[in-house]
Structures are given as structure tokens and as C-alpha cells.
Amino acid sequence: MITGAFLLVAIVLGYLLTVGLSMAATFSIARFLPDLVARDHRITSTYKLLQDGVWLVCTAVGGFAAALVLGTDHSPWIGSLSLMAVLMGVLWTNTWEMRQRGVGHQMLMSLATVAGVGAGFFLRLR
Fold first, then answer.
1. Taking Cα atoms as reference points, which of 125, 118, 106, 101 lies closest to residue 14?
2. Tally of structural domains, the chain
3. Cβ neighbours, 10 Å, residue 56
4. How far is CA 2 from CA 6, 30, 73, in A?
5. Distance from CA of residue 54 to its chain's centroid?
6. What is the pLDDT of residues 54-93, one digit of tens each?
């Protein structure tokens, strides 16, 4: 029961941090570098790659925060896999953004999710 509560708190915290930081970075980039974001009303490839990198960093921070909550006593590997599943589930069900990004960047963001959350947990638990 207690492990389940820790797991829920860790996933919610990791998700909120990941998405919140990603949104803050996205809004900041769009505000200060609008020419990098879009040209002729189309999102640029450079911006898509930048977003992939930003997502990697944000998922690492979310994974680290989730690992802080779970520690080594409350199923850290189940927590990391659960956070990855939640983030990728939202990533792949958001059809509007998936259409904007394209399948290639969608797959790259999925790999970034696995690498970032894994890195965050590894950094915390090493």
C-alpha cells in the first residue's frame, strides 16, 4: 500500500516536472527565437531537433525527481518503467502534436523519453 502511494506520487511529480519544464522551454524558445521556430508558417527541422534535446533533458529531470521520491526502498525500477510508459502514452496519443512533429521526431522523442528517465533514475540511484 505504501509503495503504491510512493509510486503514484513519484509518477505524478515526474510527469508534472517533465511536462512543465518542457512547456516553459517551448514558450521561452518561441518568445525569444521566433525565426528558429517557424518559417512560412511551418515548424523548422532545427526547432524539432532542439525540442527533442529539450525533451531529453526534461525527462531526465522528471526521472531524477521520481527517483528521489521512490528511493531504493520503493520499487525504483517499476517507477522508472511506469513513468516512461505514462510519458510515452501521452506522447503517442496526442495526435495533433504528433502530426506537427512527424513520425521520425515522434520516435526520437520516444527514445529520448527512455534515455532521459533512465538517466535520471541512474543518476539518483548510483
1. 118
2. 1
3. 19
4. 6, 42, 11
5. 9
6. 999 999 999 999 999 988 777 788 889 999 999 999 999 9
Q: Quick count: other Cβ atoms within 10 Å of Cβ 101?
A: 19
Look up the pTM and report it. 0.91
For 17, the domain range is: 4-125
Residue with cell 506537427: 100
Place of cell 521520491: 69
CA 73/CA 38 separation, integer angstroms: 46
Q: How many Å apart are CA 62 and CA 80, to the nearest integer?
A: 10
SS3 at position 39: strand
Phi, psi of 42 (to 5 degrees): -125, 140
Banded pLDDT at 101 (limits 50, 70, 90): confident
| Alpha-carbon span 79 to 69, nearest angstrom | 10
